[in-house]
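Give me structure tokens for this 242-residue protein.
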Amino acid sequence: MEFTVVIPAGGEGSRFRPYTDIVPKPMIPLGEDERPILDYIVRHLAKKGSKRIVLLVNYKWRYIKNYFNDGSRYNIMLDYSVDDDTYSNTGGSLLKAYKEGLIKGDVILIWYGDIIANLDPMELIGFHQREGADAALVIADRYQIPVGLAEVDNEKNVKRLREKPWLNIMVTIGVLTLKPSVLDGIEGKLGTKFDLMGDLIPHMIESGKKVKGFLYSCEWLDVGSLERYKKINSSLLNKVIR
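Here you go.
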């Protein structure tokens, strides 16, 4: 099945300031090799068989393009779609790339630019195809919350405190597939500045589209905040990227 990988990588990275005053968040170095966060993602996707990637960019986007160029050193085709005043946010950016003709094939694989996971994209796309899905969300079965969890009785006594515990809850991890035809006519319903996970997926569910969950039980990293970024050491990174 022909597919296009789309990586949203255009945010200003306000939670990473002052670092992002100089470089965009996807280009912040990570690990012993000090490669950009986005480099880990692109290398992983290329290694696992992805041939075409579109980067949805905006903030300091030339920094990203100067590093990745046309993707030839990864043996992939790499294109860029730059946000403008009309099309923005993750959904609007995807819609712009779609209308520009940058998205080819039967499936869009969306992989957020701050998520690192040892997920095989071919397995996800195969699942999407077998299920006849309109969208398939990668779902992890546990999540470590970034704050302490307190249990307090009626007298305001703290009876138990668990520091940043892992909870057995189903959470999305920022990777999903989408049938391209879902975007046809979506502008008339959601506009051009909508969010993928906050607007498009709920709209699809309410409209009766087939939205499936692909369960993923391996390690993954969310590099979406400076606090999380500082806690990622080489040992943890090597567990995820193999």
